[in-house]
Automatic annotation (TrEMBL):
Organism: Malurus elegans
GO CC term, one of those recorded: sarcomere
Similarity field: Belongs to the protein-tyrosine phosphatase family. Non-receptor class myotubularin subfamily.
Domain Myotubularin phosphatase, residue spans: 173-611
Protein name from the UniProt record: Myotubularin-related protein 12
Recorded name of the encoding gene: Mtmr12
One Pfam family named in its UniProt record: Myotub-related
A biological process term (GO) from this entry: phosphatidylinositol dephosphorylation
PANTHER family according to UniProt: MYOTUBULARIN-RELATED, MYOTUBULARIN-RELATED PROTEIN 12
Compartments (UniProt record): Cytoplasm, Myofibril, Sarcomere; Sarcoplasmic reticulum
Amino acid sequence: EIHIKEPIEKEVNPRLLPGELLLCEASTVYKYIQEDGSNRGTYGKLVCTNFKISFLDDDSTSDDNEPQFKNKIVGENDITLQCVDQIYGVYDEKKKLLTGQQRKYPEKLIIYCKDLRVFNFCLRYTKEEEVKRIVSGIVHHSQTPKLLKRLFLFSYASAAPNNTDGRNQTVMFETLEDWRDELERTKGNVKYKAVATNEGYRVSEKLPLYFVVPICISEESILKYEGRGIPIWCWSCHNGAALLKMSAFPKEQDDSTSQMQKAFLDGICKTISKPPYELLKMDDLSSSLPSLQDIQTAYTRFKQLFLIDNSTDFWATDVKWFSLLESTNWLEIIRRVLKKAVEVVECLEIQHTNVLLIEESATDLCCVISSLVQVMMDSYSRTKSGFQSLIQKEWVIGGHGFLDRCNHLHKTEKEEAPVFLLLLNCVWQLVQQYPPAFEFTETYLTVLSDSLYVPIFSTFFFNSQHQRDTNTSGESLKTQSGPFRFLTVWDWSVQFDPKAQAFLNNPLYAEKPKPDKSQRKTARFKHQRQLSLPLTQAKPSTKRGFFREETDHLIKNILGKRIGKFINSSDEPPNSLREFYDSWHSKPVDYHGLLLPRIDGPEIKVWAQRYLRWIPEAQLHGGGTIATAAKILDLMEEVQSLQVKMDEEHSQAVSGDVHSVPMLRNSARLSSLFPFALLQRQSVKPALPTSTWKDLEDEDDLVKRDDEFVDLSGDML
């Protein structure tokens, strides 16, 4: 039975952005609300433009019950074409993946999104011609390969007025001066220099226009092998040790070429190992970290846990949550990446050794590790502007292939890998372990991950600075007179008004170091679904080293299983690394000093706000961290108002720069996954449990013991 709501009579038109064109539409489309297994929903119009797929109902134009946290570009019922992951059609209750031209058109359409939303549309009451147009249009515009210049990015840039507020403090690293300032900030200008050798991209199209190398490296050396084999500076530690990266030479070379390249490399390494430079340690990330294919496979499995159609599916998977989570290997990859970053930190901080990260292109895992090391060691990178500058330096200008890794053009899935998402997941682990150390919140990280799929910003839609520069000129478009002026994602006013932007800033950020031991003991909150793997007794290994490498055979056996101990390459001194790790964790945290993540098995958690925000069954209404945050924010608001009154009493001018605090009234109504979860959505455990659940309820097992504190009805604890 479908609870039918009368179709809307009034005409509802989509709100179009500059350059956005309506391509096709269908009326009398029924959108299901998958909340409790019923087929409740609402009628409306489904439209497809050159920017998004959008569902419009009679509430779309209403400003009633406007959410506190609203995106001005992408609405609740909008899906950008780049955000579409897979589209399924339902034929006689059977799901079929839709690609290319369709012979028969489905009665239901299911759209899975890269931000993990799931949309269910019933087309049974829609005219046949409209069904053909809308299904064909959606599949064609979101799934078929396209040219770069066909991205909405270019349509928007040519039509939209560029009137950003200009208050963005992010360093873009597009000039030689930016690099020199960064060298000066990190005291690296004694041993390293910013070079303009690649102006006009005469060295390599993969390298940025400007970058930093050791002073002893000559311009001829940079030009010799198109920038390969050259150590490029990332960051300098306070003690003078530096983090460097290098793109490796291709492995398939004839002997003479290989010998020449080896001699060249040896010469470079000898040069930068002499004083005034510190000792050099080289780390080939392709052999010490999972491959991009492994990362993609793990994430593909992981995201399936959250692309849930209905309540029944949720409760069916809930009983085997730990085993499903463990089998994806995603949390283990996060743990290994964090552990690798800890190794690099130990070399820089304790051993005073330069670290040279090596990768085939130095634009994937090199970006992840170098960014994490800077977040851990440099408190500037934990501010909002500092973190954004870091992403610009290491990823955008550093040449990470966002276009290929996110598969924005749908050309090939072979290059696709969630490398940037991996970084954000790792940073989130640090944010949730040490909240006062970061000026930004987990909500900031979540909207940053969503912005990967919003093609009005150039930040995440090119493979390199060269590709962006060559496509910035409008010469190939007859209608375009001048160069494109792309927006940057760092101007948050484009997506959010000031009230919503307040959710991106951490009100509890420690402005100054506070060596108070009690600050380390942050409150822990129980979630409806436990988000980390339990620590169980594992069979002891013959090698008990804390950071000891197991044999290759053993690694093959245990990859994909929970590992409670660290695993590291055998040539590392395990004792010194363990001492460093244990020693740091035994002391109070300096939120403006070095930060080391806790990386034992249960400490690595699922990023609940990003992955569970669309699943009502996983939400605690009036519970979770948001309940505490609401009380703290109310208190801060009261303190601010009292401060204003005191200033008025003393006739002092009130600074207009008081940070606005978002109003979180009625915290009992808020979900634990606020500000994303909808307040009105509720879900209950099925009255008739699945057979698996029933079987498990009859046993006194781990599920019962681990979840005994959980009220599965979703009410307040």
